[in-house]
Write a structure and sequence with these properties.
Layout lengths: L3 E6 L4 E6 L2 E10 L3 E9 L8 H15 L3 E4 L2 H7 L9
Parallel strand pairs: 4-5
Antiparallel strand pairs: 1-2, 2-3, 3-4
Length: about 90
């Protein structure tokens, strides 16, 4: 079993997932002051089907809530996640 770790990296404006130190996916956002825009969510195809994309989006969501900023997405995957129940407070 691999040792995966998800980190929110504010200095890189992203949430990243690492497998034993190797970057295997990220959810990148732009900071627009009162709101953030998720622009990209990517996970290495070898790690597909494990829900990592959703966990990355949720890590950015948690940080946005902590900082009281609204969240939008130009990334189609993240935009779909943000339309689901439980994310209404971010719009």
């Amino acid at each position: 079993m691999s040792n995966m770790e998800i980190k929110f990296e504010a200095d890189h404006k992203r949430a990243a997932v690492y497998d034993e130190g190797k970057l295997i996916g990220q959810c990148v956002y732009e900071d627009k002051g009162d709101h953030w825009i998720i622009t990209t969510t990517k996970v290495d195809p070898a790690y597909g089907g494990q829900g990592l994309g959703r966990k990355l989006v949720d890590a950015v969501v948690a940080a946005a809530r902590e900082k009281s900023v609204r969240l939008r997405a130009t990334c189609s995957y993240a935009a779909k996640v943000l339309t689901k129940p439980g994310y209404e407070d971010l719009h």
